[in-house]
Structures are given as structure tokens and as C-alpha cells.
Amino acid sequence: MQGASAYGDVKLSRFNPLGRILSFDDFDRGVNGWCELLGNYDGLSNLDTVAHHMKDFRPPQLSTCTFFDIGTHGPMTGSYALKLATRPVAGHTATAIKRLTMVKRGRVQLEAYFTYSAEATVPGSQAKDAGWDANTHPSERKFGCITLGSDMADPEGVRYHCVARYMNTDLEGNLEQRWRYPVVVEPTPKEILERGKELDQVADFTAPNPGDWRILDERPQPLCYNELPTKVNWHYLRWTFDTGRRANVELQLNDRVYDMMAVPVPSYAERYAALDGLLNFYLTVRTHTATRNFLWIDSALISVDW
Amino acid sequence: MRYSHTAVIERGASVDGDLATEPYEAGWAAEARWFVKVGAFDGPTVLAMQTEISPDGLVWIPLEEAVHTVSHAGMVSWSVRDFGQWLRLRLSTDEGETSPTVMVYLALKS
Q1: Ramachandran region, residue A255 (left: φ > 0; alpha: ψ -120 to 50; beta: rest)
Q2: Under an 8 A CB cutoff, do A64 and B26 touch?
Q3: Cβ separation of B25 and A61 shorter than 8 Å?
Q4: Who contacts A215 (Cβ-Cβ below 8 Å, separation ≥6)?
Q5: Which pLDDT tens digit goes with each residue over A73-106?
Q6: What gap in Å lies between CA B11 and CA A137, rounded to an integer?
Q7: For the residues A157-181, what does the mean pLDDT come to?
Q8: CATH number of residue A66's parent domain
């Protein structure tokens, strides 16, 4: 959608959708199907059978972006944004997943305006403020990573994921600010049941081994954290993949566009039943320290080229 | 049409002494109701539960309401109004007693 025609709908003019819009989610009107992810469980609904690392991805919230210092900040438009919040536990992940199926195969695109922050330290606490220089804020180094994930299964039963991760910090808390992608598929509940070996409760569910995350582009892309954990600036995200070719296509974050055509898409050797035409999108935020991390989505749009 | 939303705030958590749930933003909701499913536990343990509120999700005080107690498995529920923006639940058992498991739902409505 280009130029003047976009102004036919002011709410859409800030997006660049493919030809057909499947969903346009303004979180002023609820969670729009972006719900908590939970691992699979047995036929008796015994939640003890959920894989340990998939038990606690936290429920998304409708947030006004309210902080201790100024009160309500507010989202990019309207009153509410979708908020994902981790626990204050190193390695903990919060998710929101949206579940669709494929009507046809082809290009699929997720666009969103998002912002992020690490939780402010409670005033009066004993936390050290070492590192504050009245410009950068130490809390920026307490924000871990944001992941764009998907889960697809085509009619032939091939299941695969297109995934991209913005690593704000590495696991030691150093600013990395680069995109990465995994070269392995997610460990599934089926694999864990068959193997009989659980992952750690705060294992990275997308790809637990840090060595399986490859750098998409060596050149960092610093974002606008804006000096404080209580100022939130909204960033544009556009992510495209192709379910016709089971391939990555492109990723855009503000002014940087990443060609992902050559990025491999891991798929399962085993065929999965009950997932015909699966088309799931998920967003996660993962903290690398004992600090709550937040990801807010002002609005999200999913479009396709058919 | 009114908007409603149910969040599972805790899923199978064990209450061993004191447990405060994660903060949950619900400023859009005019009414809220806790549902707490309490798993099997032996007396004489008493599980006490109280709603807490916060202006910022950081500093918390109890809501002006009675403490809810239960001493057997089952489900407990009560409604909450005029809570501002954030909600969480504090659950506690006496030290050294058995640790009940809980599933905590927060049902919200505009």
C-alpha cells in the first residue's frame, strides 16, 4: 500500500501490508488472539505433564505503559498496548502467540510497532546505580532479547520455523544489539516425552543452545532505549517469509532492511500429525538477568500475497 | 459489547510460606474476580489470600478487604472493585506446614 491510497485509512497508513490483510490488531480492542503459549499436556489435562520449560510463559496484558515517575505514558496510538512481561528470573521468557492456518501458500508478513524496557528499580532499594552518566541508563543492559517466531506445517506434514531474534544484550549482559537466527528447530513436547529428559525450567525454548544462534548481520543496530526505563519510543518492524518455498525473505526494523533469503529454515525430519496448514506467529521477550523485561506491541498487522 | 478477559496468573504454583503473584495490569477493567483452585493439602494448614494493589507495579499494599482463608482443597472466589490499575495476589501458609498448590485465575470485565 503506497502513497495517497494509504490515507484512505489513517490507521493503516503507517503499515506496508502485502495484498491481503488477514488481521489488523489494535490492542485498544482486546488481545486479538495474541495469547499465552503453553506446552502440550496429556489426555487427562494433567498440567504436570507439560514440559518443564514450557509451563510458565506468562499471560499477556493490556497496558497503558504506566510508570512510577510520570504515571501513564500511553502507547503510540489509543489507550492500550499488548504487554509481555517476564518474571524477574534470569532466562525467563514471556510469550504471545497468534494461531492461524494457511489458506494458500506464499508470502506472509507480520508488521508491528513495538517498544521495550527493563523494569525500573524500586526507588529506595539498595540497587546500585553504577554506570549512570545522565545519558545511557544501566537498565538498558538488563534487557535481554526479543524473538519473532513462527510455527508452520504444510499439507505434506513438513513442520518448520522462521525465526529472528534481536539480541539487545548477550548472556553476560554486554550490549550486542544485533539480529540472530537459529539453525535448529525447537525442542518439541513430543521429543521430550520420547526422550524422557526435561530441559531446564528457564531454558530458551526456541533454541536452548546459545551456539545455535547465528549472527544475521555483524553490524549492530542500536535502538532508541531513550535513557530511562520509563520512556518508551515506538519502533517499526516488518518481517516477511514465504510458506510456498518454506523460506525466509526479509526483515525490517526502522531504517535497516535485512535480506534473509539465504538464511536457512530448519525443519523437523519427523512428520507431525494434527498440524495441517499450521500458521502460528509468536513474539517473546527473554530476560538475561533477575530483572523483569517488558515488550509492548501497539498494533500488529498480518498480511499475505495471495 | 463489554470486554472480558481471563488470565491464568499462577498455574500449579506451590505456596510454601509466602507467595506474591506477578503484577498484572488491568486498568481497563471495572470489575475483577479471583478464582483460586486449591490442590489437595492436609490440615491444619490454613492458606490465606489477599488482593494487593499498586500505583506503578513496583510498590504494593493490601486492598481494603478481608483476608480470604481456606483449609481444604477446592475453589475459592471473590470479587474486587476500585483497584486502580495493577493487581496481584498474596498467598501465605504458616511456616513448616504443608504446601498447597494453586491455580490462580483473574477474570476481568470492562
Answers
A1: alpha
A2: no
A3: yes
A4: A178, A179, A180
A5: 999 999 999 999 999 999 999 999 999 999 999 9
A6: 35
A7: 96
A8: 2.60.120.200
Intervals of chain B under pLDDT 70: 42-43, 96
Whether A285 has its CB under 8 Å from any CB of chain B: the answer is: no
- Chains A and B form CB pairs within 8 A to the count of 54
Number of domains within chain A: 1
CB contact (8 A) between residue B85 and residue A31: no
Over the stretch A105-132, which tens digit does the pLDDT of each residue have?
999 999 999 999 999 987 666 566 666 7
Q: CA-to-CA distance for A294 and A284, rounded, in angstroms? A: 10
Range of the domain at A300: 3-122+129-304
Q: What is the pLDDT of residue A220?
A: 98
Interface residue of B6, B19, B25 to substitute, partner A, most A CBs within 10 Å: B25
Whether residues B12 and A67 touch (CB distance < 8 A) is answered with no
Q: What is the CATH number of the domain that holds B99?
A: 2.60.120.380
Q: How many C-beta atoms surround the C-beta of residue A104 within 10 A?
A: 11
What is the per-residue pLDDT for B44?
A: 72
Residues of B with CB under 8 A from a CB of A: 3, 5, 7-9, 11-12, 22-28, 55-59, 85
Give the structural domain span for B101. Answer: 4-109
